């Protein structure tokens, strides 16, 4: 009888230990953090350049003719990859839907917002969005006509995902998932009038691959 009680107690102890281990072990299904080119986790209060692995400069905003200096121009701007290889582009903030979240993780729904000194043109025209979606006219290009923090503005929400599964390759892509994970499109490059415009793409060969590089310069913030 004592042996039976002892074995029963040991069985319960083992079961409890196993259950407790499952509870305290980090959940492998949690989305991994997004990291910059130095392996540091991205945060919502820091600025980052989006630089391609090879060919062309960083992501920036543009009129479509390579300059912002046009007195007749009316916002919004296009979101483009700079044609100059040594141009880092404009830094961006990544702003999660939950504004209490500081660390950026993969598949987090977020706004992408250019940083710009307020003295420049269209200083309030900085948030990315997918123009013309949903609609029948494609490609769907990205512009800076988005709305920050509004959950109803589905065309202004994006996700960041790893470009591949290599653990030490910190290359990423932007994806657009307006109706959840079952409907996602990568953001790629469409060349229009020599401009490399960011747009939704259906071809994995056209996905824009980039690294996040932290902007460490001393700039005025307009978060």
From TrEMBL:
The GO molecular function terms of this record are: endopeptidase inhibitor activity
Keywords for this protein: Protease inhibitor, Signal
One Pfam entry for this protein is Kunitz_legume
Q: InterPro entries from the entry? A: KTI1, Kunitz_inhibitor_STI-like_sf, Prot_inh_Kunz-lg
Domain of life, per UniProt, equals Eukaryota
Look up keyword Transport and say if it applies: no
- Provide the leader sequence positions: 1-21
SUPFAM superfamilies in the record:
STI-like (SSF50386)
Q: Which Gene3D superfamilies match?
A: 2.80.10.50
UniProt entry tagged with the keyword Signal? yes
Which PANTHER family does the record match to this protein? KUNITZ TRYPSIN INHIBITOR 2 (PTHR33107), MIRACULIN-LIKE (PTHR33107:SF47)
Would you identify the family this protein belongs to, as annotated? Belongs to the protease inhibitor I3 (leguminous Kunitz-type inhibitor) family.
Q: What is this protein called?
A: 21 kDa seed protein
This protein's species is: Nicotiana attenuata
